[in-house]
Amino acid sequence: MTGEEIRELEKEFVLYPWMFQKAVNPVVIERAKGNYFYDHTGKQYLDFSSQFVFSNFGHADERMAEAISAQLRKLENAASPFATEPKAKLAKLLAEITPGDIKKAYFSTSGAEANEGAIKLARMATGRQKIISRWGGYHGSTFGAMAVSNDYRNWACEPSIPGVVHCLGPYCYRCPFGATYPSCDLLCAKHVEDVIRFEGRENRVAAFMSEPIVGANGIIVPPDGYWETVREICDKYGVMLIIDEVMTGFGRTGKWFAIEHWNVVPDVITMAKGITGGYVPLGATCMREWVAKQFEEKQWVHGHTYSGHTLAMAAGVAAIEIYKQDKLIERSAELGHYLLDKARELGEKHPSVGDVRGVGLFVGLELVKNRKTKEPIHDPWMEGPRPPTAKMKVLAAALQEGVYCLPGQTSVIMLAPPLTIEKSEIDFAMGVFDRALEIADAEVEK
Questions:
Q1: How would residue 426 be classed by pLDDT, with cut points 50, 70 and 90?
Q2: Is there a contact between 129 and 163 (Cβ–Cβ < 8 Å)?
Q3: I want to staple 209 with a disulfide (CB 3.0 to 4.6 A). Which of 242, 355, 372, 430 is the partner?
Q4: Residue 446 forms part of a structural domain
Q5: What's the domain count of the chain?
Q6: Do residues 362 and 391 both lie within one domain?
């Protein structure tokens, strides 16, 4: 088939996620290798967002192909009540790399499903109903995951599951409390305690759930002390702490899991994306021993047809071996400093860049109309058709020059290249963005 035939067939028969279908005009990808993918004309694109932040070690890795194909030839799948070698191996490996005494894993097929499992886990383990999450967070597109998420995308799902309460999060660039770190005395963390108290304390609140670093809604890094304080608050009221590492896990921030930057052990940690590098869909809900013990004599009333799918298990085992063998976690930390420095250079040069922030290979450029007022380049909290925004024009210009970057939902450009990225490739991408940001600069208010 020609590229145009593929595009037209998809436009006619495929419902594209998150899109106004009239606007769909996809690039037709034919193949990928390493940090690049190629369209049907042979044009090369540097994958500077690891697709949807899952291609952590690049495309078409022969070790992954061999691990998956070997498992396929031996046992393609088995129902979840059966034990298999790859499931046993992956569960043990996850227990070894997750923080603290997190030990037992429940397997699903996506981050949204992992988070759905976490919600049920908290309610069943504690016997309480309420889940507190944050405005501006994102946890997936299924009904429960959308309920604990909060941006314009969850409005279409309302009313959703009951018992979810939102609170304000840490956002030092736009502090919702009008304070300045560190003199703020971590009002954002103390606010979590207020909400827990107002919602019934240990009698009614099952869990506090959040991304350790907000991902699609802006790569928002909390200040030091925030997570340590929140952990203490959760302990004080017997509230489970659920950390969503779907996007930040597996080396993205220079640690196996981002929460490790603050030496905090959550009660439940959810993951997907990088767990297999995107080669096979897989999610996991991992828990501390005290949580798992709640189900020794109480039924775990939850499941998926493909829980523990053997191809996904084999892919997960191979992925963790690649992360270790290639020292990709350490590489992310090292190259993350380089990427952040280069991004800050762009921030100093371009008046449209109001803030630059990130950890590891997870960096955001927040675009503004006015640095003094911090007015974003476009309002992300709106629904319905939008005119082409300056950010989307910047990303379109970068794509034309061969650099793909995930749009995200706010006025923040997300830089999340594979952990296998080279300095020369970072330099190339930054050069492309240096030119493309002139489009946003033209919309800055004088």
A1: very high
A2: yes
A3: 242
A4: no
A5: 2
A6: yes
According to DSSP, residue 231 is labeled: H
Whether residue 352 contacts residue 368, with contact meaning beta carbons closer than 8 Å, is answered with: yes
- Count Cβ atoms within 10 A of the Cβ of residue 372 and give its class: 0-12 exposed, 13-18 middle, 19 or more buried: exposed
| Closest to 118 in 3D by CA, of 130, 132, 106 | 106
pTM, two decimals, is 0.97
Residue 53 and residue 67 share a domain: no
Radius of gyration of the chain (CA): 22
Q: Please answer whether residues 266 and 239 qualify as being in contact, where contact means their C-beta atoms are separated by less than 8 angstroms.
A: no
Q: Which run of H or of E encompasses 284?
A: strand 283-288
Please name the amino acid found at residue 420. Answer: T
Task: Give yes or no: residues 306 and 419 share one domain.
Answer: no
Distance CA 2, CA 306 (A): 34
* 21-55 pLDDT per residue, tens: 998 999 999 999 999 999 999 999 999 999 999 99
Tell me the Ramachandran region of residue 331: left when phi exceeds 0, alpha when psi lies from -120 to 50, beta otherwise.
Answer: alpha
Q: Which domain holds residue 173?
A: 63-325
- Are 102 and 187 found together in one domain? yes
Amino acid in position 129: Q
